[in-house]
Amino acid sequence: MSETSAPGSSNGPLTGLRIIEFAGIGPGPFAGMMLADMGAEVILIERSTDFATASHYPRMAQNRGKKSVALNLKTEAGQAAAWKLIESADALIEGFRPGVMERLGLGPEEVAKRAPRLVFGRVTGWGQSGPLAHAAGHDINYVALTGVMATAMRPGQAPLLPPTIVGDMAGGAMFLLFGIMCALFEAQKSGQGQVVDAAMIDGVAAMSGLIHQMRGAMGYWKDEPGQNHFLNTSPFYEVFECADGKHITLGAIEPQFYALLLQKLGLHDVDPKRQYQSADWPALKARVAAIVQSKTQAQWCAELDGSDVCFAPVLSLADAPNHPHNAQRHLFVDLEVDGRPQRQPAPAPRFSRTSARTPEQGTKIGQDTDAVLASVGYGATDIAALREAGACA
Predict the structure, then answer these.
(1) pLDDT tens column, 321-371
(2) How many angstroms separate the CA atoms of 300 and 295, rounded?
(3) Single pTM value for the model
(4) What are the chain's domains?
(5) Residue 351 backbone dihedrals phi, psi, to 5 degrees
(6) Which residues are catalytic?
(7) What does the alpha-carbon distance between residue 67 and residue 45 come to, in Å, rounded to a whole number?
């Protein structure tokens, strides 16, 4: 891949940045992976109690490019080691419920005293404050409460969204990353770190800004599904089934694209100027559906791929890497993880000069404990003493 560098190389745009990530699930590990992809040194602090099963622990894709240290934070020596790592870092990532880091003695106030320049990145579902701050939740809940899930509601049907992507990764991880980079930039001028409170619910709400604009000032968004072309009720913005049971998508919102779509489908008797007359949609949509069902997905790809009708086939996760566009852009990479093949998405975005790391298998728990501790001043005898005291593994 020309857009990425060799495994373990450090010429990415974030080379020289050290991040401490406290092991968790969901958006935190994904954010750490993206930072590692871009050249940052991401040190993953994992529980030493998990080290006993490390040989059976999967090499998580989201741990690619990271270094793993297994520490027991309930011991004084384990805490001391964690502090040395934190004091050596530029930023920290944690995704626990509010109060967990404080109970560990590693909360923002304590960190600010010992590492005043460090950016403290926190990602949660509901945020650090508010009536729901301490409640459990998942992606589906955060997207629902913002009103965004309702934008995927077909008439008479329950809304449906792809799991973990909108809330966890987009609303959580991406906004955490944006916040960390903003705070790091500001710290260069002020010399002071700060807390980044990245709540998934905040991020999802922020991403709906265009929809709120269309709904309000522009009057373009209709809450009634039957009058809203985005809600899969129109004949030109929808998923249609093909003759072979596979599906294609059409998204010809603009007039010129809609006119071309009518031409490609042979609907010469349809007036393109009536595109947004929702009363026409049910009958016309039935006609479009019948036309699409007359050919296979492959046949429609041959006819519509690359045209301005705004077309794409609905591909499975297995088939997506083989599409010519995705293959040419090296959208996915194939790895061997502990002797087994594994496919992963390639790093994004791409840079013209400081390329991202080539993805490699994720680190195992405690794999880098000795090397990382040595980087903050621990000698071999010190590390052996830590192990003897049960502070690391």
Answers:
(1) 999 999 999 999 998 888 889 899 999 999 999 999 989 889 999 999 999
(2) 7
(3) 0.91
(4) 4-208+345-388 (3.40.50.10540), 226-241+247-313 (3.30.1540.10)
(5) -125, 145
(6) 138, 168
(7) 9
